[in-house]
Amino acid sequence: MSSTVISHGAAHHDAHDHHHETFLTKYIFSQDHKMIAKQFLITGIVMAVFAMLLSILFRIQLAWPEEDFPILEVFLGKWAEGGRIKPDFFLSLVTIHGTMMVFFVLTAGLSGTFSNLLIPYQLGARDMASPLMNMLSYWFFFAACVIMVASFFVESGPAAAGWTIYPPLSAVPTAIAGSGLGMTLWLVSMTLFIASQVLGGVNYISTVLNMRTKGMDLWKMPLTIWAFFLTAIVGLLSFPVLVSAVVLLFFDRTVGTSFYLSDLVVQGQILPNEGGSPILFQHLFWFLGHPEVYIVVMPALGLTSEVISTNSRKPIFGYHAMVYSLVGITVLSFIVWGHHMFVTGMNPFLGGVFMITTLIIAVPSAVKAFNYIATLWRGNIRFTPAMMFAIGMVSFFVSGGLTGLYLGNAALDINLHDTYFVVAHFHLVMGSASIFGMLCGVYHWYPKMFGRMMDTKLGYLHFWLTFVGAYLVFFPMHFMGIDGVPRRYYTFTAFPFMDKWISVNMLITWAAIIAGLAQVAFLWNFFSSIWRGKRAPQNPWNANTLEWTTPVEHIHGNWPGEIPTVYRWPYDYSKPGHDTDFIPQHIPFSETMSSNLPHDFEGNEEAIRIQNEWNKQNNREVIEG
Amino acid sequence: MKFNINNRFKAVLGCLLAVGLLFSTPSFADQQDSLAQDSTVSAVAADEGAAGEADSAATAPVVDSAAASSPASSTTAATNPAQEQVQQIDPQVYKNLTYYILLFLIVCTIVAVVGKVLSIYELTRKMNGKYNPFANNTLQSVLFVVFLVAFFGFVYYGYAVWGDWAWRAAVTEHGKRIDSMFIITTVVITVVLILVHLLLLTFPYIYRMRANTKAYYYPHNDTIEKIWTIVPAIVLTVLVLFGFFTWRSITNVPEDLQKSALQVEVLGEQFQWQVRYPGADGVIGKRDYRLTTPTNSYGIDFNDKNAWDDIQASDIVLPVNKSVRFHIISKDIIHSFYIPDFRVQINAVPGMTNYFQFTPTVTTEEMRERMNDPKYDYVMLCNKICGSGHYNMQKKVVVVTEAEYKEWLSTQNKYFTEDLQKEFTALDSKESDELTTASLN
What we know:
The complex is a heterodimer of chains A (625) and B (441).
Chain A: H1 2-15, H2 23-28, H3 33-63, H4 70-76, H5 87-123, H6 131-150, H7 181-210, H8 223-254, E1 265-266, E2 269-270, H9 278-312, H10 319-332, H11 348-360, H12 362-376, H13 385-402, H14 404-407, H15 410-416, H16 420-450, H17 456-483, H18 501-532, H19 605-617
Helix pairs in contact in A: 3-5, 3-6, 3-18, 5-6, 5-7, 5-8, 5-9, 5-16, 6-7, 7-8, 8-9, 8-10, 9-12, 9-13, 9-16, 10-12, 12-13, 13-16, 13-17, 16-17, 17-18
Chain B: H1 2-38, H2 41-57, H3 62-79, H4 81-86, H5 91-127, H6 135-166, H7 173-206, H8 222-251, H9 255-260, E1 262-269, E2 272-277, E3 311-313, E4 316-319, E5 324-330, E6 335-339, E7 344-348, E8 354-358, H10 364-371, E9 378-382, E10 394-400, H11 402-410, E11 413-414, H12 418-440
Parallel strand pairs in B: 1-5, 4-10
Antiparallel strand pairs in B: 1-2, 2-3, 3-11, 5-8, 6-7, 6-9, 9-10
């Protein structure tokens, strides 16, 4: 099956080899997966910087609630009159920060970039199954970003109901200013974004299933591809549910339906809506919202698996267990959404069931963490900046994941729900961990994307400032949550018991500012290296996967001649008996007679016979067939 | 070679410039600060020009510009009133921003200089044949160990100091069970956190890349993998069962206990809480949101006679050691009824009633003694984003003895005030009139 597709692809490639590319088709409306990956990445970085600036703004408010910062008025106008951010705008900042980070940066920026870049490269395909859909996927995403940013230029301000946009707050414009035009734009933007994700997801899945090169069976795929593949499945099954939630909310807001609304007296006004339930929205939202967490973190896990293995010069420990745990997470991610709703008034017995499924999902996650550590054990570890970020990612994944044991426990969640404890938990386990996975990917595959190397010293500086900064920002928040400080509070001054946390808030804000400035090191490094970086060799990290067999200069169709055939799994690092410490996937076993192991032949008797003959000639032990 | 020397020369120059700026800029800003305070508001607008000049010069003597600007300012202020109107924001603001941006640029310059110096150092080592390609690798692995120590110190500090700030033992019956589970979970995860980080951050040091070493080819070990699948699974099963039964015991209260408890209704609205006690009959009257009027903002249905003696309370006051069943409702959007000290939380959702039943065990007085804070109060706060006043939507919770509770209850007003009674009877008669006319027709 796959071979026919490839021969067709090659013929197609030859026929179009000489066509001309204009600036518009090469850089803007590109259908080339490599260019689209770069478009996703750069858009993602721009959105990340934007969302980070928003977070710095509200961190300033939280650290110095009594002080004026007139400079804010210069930039924000009426939303920060007299230099103080207004409560409504504070909520907008929190909302848009969350939305952009979760959807635009960690979903599109992460899996959009690396799925596009690596799926064809690592599978040995000339491009995605449908380049046109791929291009549309990017442009829908871009339009979504533009609309979301545009909501800052709306009179009534951007959406302010939290990134979870629970109705009735998001449905009734009189309840909060942000639920006017700003919320409409949010909904439109999100619908476009979901269209982008579905287009992308269909493409990733069909490429992985149909366009693998000769010899690349599923169990020879790198873990990155497994992660992208399963992520795409999760996204494809869950994102459409969010569309339904969004569309129904849109009807409630404009047409006058009552899907989510009932018994409302807002600002003294009795609303006519009857019979709806806000809980319905929460179910629909979290049916996407929880898998979304794994959509965000699984690609990061895939990228770090690859980077840790390559830089430890050691096969990833328990490849099959890693795949099965990803599959387990994929399946379980669909039946745990109720743990976001323990105290919403959902049937408490149902809550108990969700609690059981939620804690089960910790098992595959724990397996992954232990396998990473086992991969490091007795490795020969090389600390490229990518490797640093990969180790940082595992650290965040563990320390953030552990606090999930509290929150997944319905009884403990009573006291921790919607407090800073939750903020700390998810910023570590999905925020920081995924960002680190993404940065690890950027540092590792930058040579493949731009043909140049990034500066390593700036990379180390960036890593250490960000790593330490992120812990300083999020670790203290756990304790605020235990004390009962709710999230999304504009200031801590209204309650005597929160006074003590203002000093901690200042620490957090300073750490956030310094970590934010540290990103300048990354941005400078990233953008200046595009033109001025050292030229990259073909395989700078001595890695095994197929993308490093392509020429450094990007060409249409990825490989100049035949696509290489795959003979082995991607993790033959430091195999005993071989002269180098890596054997790329396209090297046949006939060229590595001295290092072949019985397991490699998968019961192929002819191959074992040949190997045994060679072994006899070279006085080696004979394999038992 | 020549190129390198040039670079070094530039680096040294840059370094000198940076150090110069570092020393001159703060004093420069201080001068500007005092200047801004001295001069009148009208003068400030004109100052900006002078400040701009000073900015570009940066190291120029500041006293001069300050002296020059004061006489100049009076004339420009007179001739340029339009400019003054536009310029409502104190120019000091811009100066401060510029100052911080400059400061950041200096930091960047220093980083760049250090980077250059390091690469020059590396180059010279290479030329002398003394370059160790693994030096940086070792440095990073050592930094991981340093980080590990700092991280453990930080975690310890967090537990000891912030943990102490944050932790107050629960003052309800079910809260004690939650607390013991919280502590067990904390012990488990702290052990795992420390073990995992110990391995994760020392392995990089122990197994850092060296010349002539090769990694150990070790693709899998089914026994180990089974162990670390099953052990977490067992630990989690224990936690799950423990948690499940605690959760059921909190949420699944037998019906007779539900009925015998004191009933209190709490209604959330933007941005306040209303509390309704059932009165002498022990039954909370019906509510219909459609009956909400300015006088009956709660929307109580006074056709239900149970509602007539319902009591409007300013605070939530509860008798100690008595089971209370809270009915949580919302008037407009979702709020959350959250009392951290009690380990109590349930959302207030429009269109449905949520319940939470618990027994407070420590009175406010006792808690004040325990906390050694005579002003300490339990507080109920909103914990679901609900708009601009979300951060200050609270209600005091007071736990008292049974006798004090009864006394307090007798001083509270009823919802069915005289005004409402009049309105109600008027409405009632009108309705019966309508009914009679309707039947006549």
